[in-house]
Design goal:
By secondary structure, this protein is mostly helical. It is built from 19 helices and no strands. 57% of the residues are buried.
Length: 435
């Protein structure tokens, strides 16, 4: 029986998706929900923790950044290992790290333990983001890839919204440790889904060809109700371990550096917003509950923005859409002070979340499409890693700004600048694979 040179490639990129493809993308979405919940739980519990333990703003900035430092290490160190051991294995490892460390955080008794546990949870989150977005990109049809990857990344703000809603109910009644018990338990419950229902990357199996690669490919094809293969398709096989040097191959150096600049500046702005909105709004006179809701409104706007970006990118191009969204976010941050002190500030948070998070998430499909499969998770991971450096610096710098007496309005105006830089860098990327 003769088969096309690569029947798997033809199957993966047809417009009609199989149930198995949808399940894999759904699980990737759910893992990003867990990511969002586990990252943002510190923002919603910070006012209570800082009040109980007497943590000053500049030290609280380091608590915020502990997970972000771990996420940087996870993106740079853990995520590239997915190109060696497989996307599914890495997602399983990361989910275990996240679930255990977040659960144990409920029993932390001092700032040192809190920082250490936030760092460990960050390791898992950093590796998870790169691996889940890469796997979703590989299972999505080529014609609608931007939408499906954006949908997967929309799980992140959904997790943050859920964390905010649960926090508003749990923290006043049961205290901040209960929030970590809840988030950790939910993450641990996702592990059976990964074990039994998540499919491994077809591109990883056919190009890296680990032990039993053909058997594993045929098992996935069987779940898709497709005929099995007698042998793996003839493809250019890259058996050398993935290397960061591959990100600077012919024609890739400029694109890689621009991607890193875009991620760095977008992360710096986004994590300033995510980390400090609840704390700053409560200091500006809003109640504790409204402070929590401000972060929830921001992330609700983010979810809608991400979905709109995915649909719009298929029509006008991904890079142009990112520039429009991030440019709008910068403008909204600059005029934020006009609404300070009124209930309309919550509307502004929603609009900023819509544009900022929407444009930010567009960088993930850019990274996934920029590199070939043998270095794809490495490329996404290092792009995220470069961004995490900005994510680490953003909350820390904001902490010193707050300690120096800078207002919420002035902080917003300052952080609008890296937002604009990120949009410009994304627009400057040139690749036949990125619209």
């Amino acid at each position: 029986m003769s088969t096309p040179a690569n029947p798997i490639e033809e199957m993966m990129h047809r417009d009609r998706m199989t149930v198995s493809q949808r399940i894999t993308i759904l699980i990737c979405f759910l893992m990003n929900v867990m990511d969002g919940m586990d990252v943002l739980v510190i923002s919603f519990t910070a006012p209570k923790i800082s009040g109980e333990w007497g943590i000053p703003p500049q030290e609280l900035g380091w608590v915020f950044s502990a997970a972000l430092i771990g996420m940087t290490v996870g993106a740079l160190g853990l995520a590239p290992q997915a190109d060696r051991i497989g996307r599914k294995a890495m997602i399983l490892i990361c989910a275990s790290l996240m679930g255990v460390s977040v659960f144990v955080t409920a029993f932390a008794s001092n700032i040192t333990e809190l920082i250490a546990l936030r760092f460990v949870s960050g390791l898992g989150i950093g590796g998870m983001l790169a691996s889940a977005s890469t796997l979703a990109s590989e299972y999505a049809p080529r014609t609608s890839r931007e939408f499906w990857v954006s949908l997967v990344m929309a799980g992140y703000p959904i997790g943050a919204v859920l964390a905010g809603m649960v926090a508003a109910a749990i923290i006043p009644a049961s205290g901040w440790p209960a929030m970590y018990l809840c988030a950790g338990t939910l993450t641990l419950l996702s592990i059976p889904l990964i074990l039994f229902f998540l499919d491994e990357s077809m591109e990883y199996l056919t190009k890296q060809r680990p032990v039993r690669a053909l058997e594993r490919v045929n098992a996935i094809l069987a779940r898709m109700a497709l005929p099995s293969l007698d042998q793996l398709p003839e493809v250019a096989v890259e058996r050398k371990p993935a290397s960061v040097r591959g990100l600077f191959g012919p024609g890739r150096t400029r694109q890689t550096l621009l991607l890193w600049v875009a991620f760095f500046n977008a992360f710096a702005t986004l994590y300033f917003l995510l980390s400090w909105i609840p704390k700053l709004t409560s200091e500006a006179g809003l109640s504790e509950r409204l402070g929590i809701y401000s972060g929830t409104v921001f992330n609700a706007g983010s979810f809608v923005g991400i979905l709109v970006l995915g649909g719009l990118a298929t029509k006008i191009g991904l890079r142009k859409t990112i520039l429009i969204f991030l440019g709008s976010a910068a403008l909204l941050m600059m005029v934020f002070g006009l609404f300070s002190g009124s209930f309309l500030v919550l509307v502004m948070f929603g609009l900023i979340g819509f544009s900022m998070q929407g444009g930010f998430v567009g960088l993930y499909p850019v990274a996934a499409q920029l590199y070939p499969s043998e270095v794809r998770t490495t490329g996404v991971g290092w792009g995220i890693g470069a961004g995490r450096l900005g994510a680490v610096l953003g909350p820390i710098v904001a902490g010193y700004f707050v300690a120096a007496g800078l207002s919420l309005t002035l902080n917003f105006m300052i952080f609008a600048i890296p937002c604009l830089i990120s949009g410009g860098a994304a627009m400057a990327i040139r690749s036949k694979n990125v619209s």
